[in-house]
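Standup notes, protein team

Yesterday: finished cleaning the Phytomonospora endophytica set.
Today: Immunity protein Imm1 structure.
Blockers: none.

Input for Immunity protein Imm1:
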Amino acid sequence: MTSLKAYFRPGHRDEPAVASTDAELDALLDELMREGFDRSIAVLSVAEPGDGGYRALHVAVDPEGDVGALIYIDSTDAWYSKGTTSEREELFYCYYGEDRDFPRDAELTLATVRAAAAEFLHTGLRPTLADWQPW
C-alpha cells in the first residue's frame, strides 16, 4: 500500500491531505462529495513515487447523480475512464472552480470510482477496475 496526497481544497495546494489507509481514503472521498460542484475533482498523487515516476488519479464526483469519472496520468500518458454515456449534454466537473471536460462516455458509478481510488491507494498504478480510453 502507498500513501496518496490529495488536492481539492484551497489549503491543499500548500499542504495536501494525505490518505494512507482505506479508512482515510474513504473519509477523504466523503469530504470531496460534500464540497459542492465547484470542487468536484480531487487529484490523488502517489506521495513518494520513487523511480516509478509521477502517477496521479483525478477523481471526479457528482453525488446527486451517483456518478463520477476518472483520469489517470503517469509520466508518459493520460487516460480517461470509459463507462456509460452521460445523460448530460456536456460532461464536465470542476477542479478548484475551473471546468474540466470529460468524454461523454467517461461516466462511472460512484461505487466504481471509489473502488478504483482504493485500488490506486493499494497499488499506486492505473486501476484495473475501470476501462480506459486515451486522453
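Follow-up from PR in the comments: The first strand starts at residue 4 and ends at 7.
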